[in-house]
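User: I'm preparing a small set of examples for a lab meeting where we compare how different chains pack in three dimensions. I only have the primary sequence for this one, and I'd like the structure in token form so I can line it up with the others. Please keep the answer compact; I'll paste it straight into my notes.
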Amino acid sequence: MNGRNRRDEHARTAAGAGLGAGFAGLLAFWAHQVAGSWGDGYWVFGCVAGAIVCGLALARRRDRKWAAVSGFAVAVTAVLASRFAGLPAEPGPAMALALSVLVGSAVRTLPVRQAAAVAAGGLAVASCSLLTAHQPASLPPVLVLNLGAWLAGVAYGLGCRRLAARRHALAEDVRRHERLQLARELHDVVAHHVTGIVLQAQAAQVLARKRPDRLGGSLSGIETAGSDALAATRRLVGLLREAAPPTPPRESLAALVGRFDGPAVRLRLPDDEPSWPPEVSSTVYRVVQESLTNVSRHAPHARHVDVTVAREGDTLTVEISNDAAPVPARRPRRGGYGLLGMRERLDALGGTLHAGPRPEPGGWSVRATLPLPLHALAERP
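Assistant: Understood. Below is the structure token output for the 381-residue chain.
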């Protein structure tokens, strides 16, 4: 998660630097054009006003609504000054681009009413540029420039907003589907523990008749099994509330790897797999299943895949890696909805999940860590 956040932060920083360079270039270009056609000194006001709005656009993430309102106020002031002081038409290209960025950012992220208000304000400011037109043409260039920039900003914001809404809806559908399927796993886990309690209770009845001196140990086992059942139920109910992943088929990891239709898989398992609690076994299975599915989709040219499950003290580590050569992507790779569910489940169980490229010798790796319950540690051979 931290690695992905750092990549996103680097991408935002690079985008901000590129936007700042674009603003600076437009300000310099427009100042040169005004100085050449109007004379020295006429470019100063427009350049300063444009720089202020560009700065607000670069700092918009702190408060998008007030950044847009402040930008509109500066733009209207520039329009009025241009109108009554006989200055070059405003807003100029740099200010128009900055206003477009402010409008697009607000439409993309703000609540519907606030986004609509910002969009309407941007249209009003763009229309005000007609007041500063110095040409008698029916459609002044300054009006075309500002209306075009406003329209581009609104279109970008609406497009991003619709894409985000679609992704959110898909994620919610996945969570709802997984939550319904988890109810079956809850039944299986409870049945597993209750069956053990029933068997120990039957054994206790026999001991009560034949070996009363050993009855205490049997009752202690029943108490431990009941505590384990309650703990497992709490964990699974917590996962159910957090939209946990679906129940895996009832097969071993070896069977899952054996039917994988893709690169050769090398499987390494610890010796104590049968002693894992059901919720741990199902989580390990789903992490491996999702990772192998991603290999078949995104790394079909990998020569081999390594699946390693290791136990170190009270932590179980699952790592799935492949040696596929990196493929240039048009957009940054993001985790799929399967990995989203796995990450939420591991978080709820106190574990972690990291997915990303391997530095050496290349390829992709998914690494999950999962703490084992105390009763599983006690059963360790």
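A couple of notes for your slides: Residues 243-249, 329-335, 377-381 have pLDDT under 50 and may be disordered. The beta strands are 264-268, 304-312, 315-322, 352-357, 364-371.

User: Perfect, thanks.
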